[in-house]
UniProtKB/TrEMBL annotation, chain A:
CDD domains registered for this protein in UniProt: TM_PBP2
GO annotations of cellular component type: plasma membrane
TM ranges: 12-30, 114-139, 151-174, 194-213, 250-270, 306-326
Keywords: Cell membrane, Membrane, Transmembrane, Transmembrane helix, Transport
Residues covered by the ABC transmembrane type-1 domain: 114-319
Compartmental location: Cell membrane
Main location: membrane
Domain of life the protein comes from: Bacteria
InterPro entries from the UniProt entry: BPD_transp_1_N (IPR045621), MetI-like (IPR000515), MetI-like_sf (IPR035906)
Protein name per the record: ABC transporter permease
From TrEMBL, chain B:
Coiled coil (residue ranges): none
Protein's name in the database: Peptide ABC transporter permease
Gene3D superfamilies per the UniProt record, alphabetical: MetI-like
Keywords assigned by UniProt, alphabetized: Cell membrane, Membrane, Transmembrane, Transmembrane helix, Transport
Name of a matching Pfam family: BPD_transp_1
Source organism per UniProt: Nocardioides silvaticus
Amino acid sequence: MFSFLVKRILSGSLIVVLVSVMIYALFWYGPKSPALELCRRDTNNRCTPAKLVEFEDRLGYSNPIYEEYGKWAKGLVADRTIIHGTSEYDCPAPCLGISYRDKSLVTDQFKERFPVTVSLAVGASALYLLIGVTVGVLAARRRGSVADKALVASTLVFSSIPYYLVALLSFLILTLSTSVFPEAKYVPFLDDPLAWFSGLLLVWLVMGLYGATAYTRYSRGSMVEALGEDYVRTARAKGLRMRTVVTKHALRSALVPVITIFGLDVAFLLSGTVFTEKIFSLEGIGKWGIDAVNIKDLPVVQATTLVLAVSVVVMNIIVDIVYSILDPRVRLA
Amino acid sequence: MALPAGDIAVHDETADASLEPEARKKIAGRSPTRIAFDRLRKDPIAVICFAIVLLFAVIALFADQINSLVGVNTEVVRASERVNLVTLLPLDGPPNHGFDPEHPFGVAPGDGTDNFAVWTKGCQTSLFLATMAAVLSTTIGVALGLLAGFLGGIVDSIISFMIDLFLTFPFLVGALALAPIINDRWATEPEKLRDVSFWALVAILTIFGWMTVARLVRGEVLALREREFVKAARVIGVPTRRILVREMLPNLIAPIIISFSLGLPAYVSAEAGLSYLGIGIIGRESWGRTIEQATPWWEQYPQFLLAPVVGIAVLVVALNLLGDAIRDAFDPKTRR
């Protein structure tokens, strides 16, 4: 178990580093200098080549890339001071740099936006499991019935529609045209739990119902398989109630493949749900990322990528550990 | 070299000896692809979806001809001839007037371009781009999967690591970072930008799309490698390249066709999604961009939004269901 963890954390860190290097290099070697945008803004669109060089010096683009990347990476663990022309910015660890847009600390912006994305992820993933697994298990028990067939067919069609169309139409029809749901907004949970809940309810329902279709199919499929296993028959034969057999025996092994997908989905949810945040105008990690890319705000893009890579790696490790708990045959090595 | 016993219907010669010659003919061997194709033809959903996809393909292939037949084009005219300059809504046709035969889908609010012409050209962009991306990503995925599975060792480790890396790498962030970089590079040459942005999008979709195929093929190859016919070929000294192409590839037809057919709808959807976010194709009509343009007009002019939405939804659902049907048809475990 211990050696497994060490191995996975090492290979995971390697992936995180590579992803962040790739994004860094993409901007660095891109045809348009990331300094150009800042230069234009600060000089009221009169950015001369000489001024651009000055801005590039200021942002460190005249130094070798590995040196600048090193500074950035070191800032994650140690305090650093960023010098921006004549002004200095203290950036306590974990320092993600300062945004080119308004020169505020990226870490602070992150702290402001991450709760929005976490709230979305928590609600959506809860619905994935709650609706998806429940409906899937019920369908597996009534396998072959009309209800089961209708369910399988409808989830197949529904999940084939691109997500952004579903989200966009839900927003337009349910919020704009009919105002069945109020406009989505984020209120911190600690300020007002009720407003937090009602503000995000529609968004959760859209994300959750759409995502749950996949879970319904996965859990139905693996449940059908599990119910056909010998140990289920043995459990029935020794007189256990069907309910106990389903929940205690079959469900446990049926959940294993579902958990894998769930882990990755949570990771992607945490790294920002770009379409959801754009359509419902929520200021989360995803919208932060697109806005930053459009103005070439490298420190912010780096931060969003880092969040994604770390959450994917961490979720993968957690999934493997949960595996070994759910399925005693799995040994971590 | 004969194919392995993937053909389920192949019968044992000695057992056949007792049968009448006529009966022997009936149980002639059929290849797995043949079996799958026969199953597909009997599947009503597959046939309907295929017809829908075919319809869209015809629209895409002959978009220009259809447009000139209907008498519309995507050129921007003097907007004042088609839209009210105060409300920006069209003078004729939807939403405020009845059907306008000159513009079957109406005209866009604001600049007055013809919606039907933009729609058919958008269909062309979408299908052409998705096909290119699916062909490229399947080819690359199959090649890398074959190499990783067959050669093993260090090659396998490197390719498997690349698969994991690219699966971790955020598609949207990658696309968001790459698209503006490419577009800035050719921003001064609109003629070139049109092609560059098309191929750049194909490249982005391919870079983030080859991994699933590669992983699938690698797994299959790992199992095939240990089969007798491959070992036999090795023993008699068949060169590796020949083993890969002549022995392995024919056995990988099913995963290749399945990944290709399920890749198409994913790319159609991704293209429109990226255009909707404003980082898609430049200089060509795209359903995604129409959706983005039409969203603010929803309450006054819903038809404007619905045309591309229905286009994407119907095409993607038909492609997905067809892909699922193909997968079922190739799967010997599903019975009908």
